[in-house]
Amino acid sequence: MLPGVFYASLAGFLAALASSSAKLSLGADHLKEVCETGLKIWTDRQASGRDQGLDTTACDWLHIPLRLLCGGLLFTCNAVMWTFFAKALRHSSSSARATVTTTASNFISSAFLGHVIFGETHASLWWVGIILTLTGLLVLHGSTHQASQENVSKKDE
Known about the structure:
- This is Transmembrane protein 42.
- Keywords: Membrane, Signal, Transmembrane, Transmembrane helix.
- By secondary structure, the protein is mostly helical.
- The protein has one domain (about 1-155).
- It has helices at about 1-25, 30-45, 55-90, 95-120, 125-155.
- Helix 2 crosses helix 3 (about 55-90), helix 3 runs antiparallel to helix 4 (about 95-120) and helix 4 runs antiparallel to helix 5.
- It is elongated, with a radius of gyration of 22 Å.
């Protein structure tokens, strides 16, 4: 049971990472802004008291390879995610358990990555939905374990 939960959680995280990669590769100029901010920090450290103007022309073309890299990360994360999801299905007692665990992990990971990468915040209704999903996950895990114990006790009789 534990390997199935681990693989399902990892599959959910990889799905969220793939979604974030898609948003970075196909979204607005977020990568260009990150490039300009990183270049500013780097030139400030290199200047060490010298007066240098900020030249952001490198970011005019550098965001294109970064977008392509994020697109490659999108396909890689999706391929690995499906591999881990298949392993979760194989190691779980039910496909519902693996699916719900992957979904819950995806929601939580999406919230975390969205906050860290994009500075997103979520409404209270979104958090209520997450709590209901996690509660359902706990009920599913508890009821499956209890049902398997009842089946074992019936076989003993």
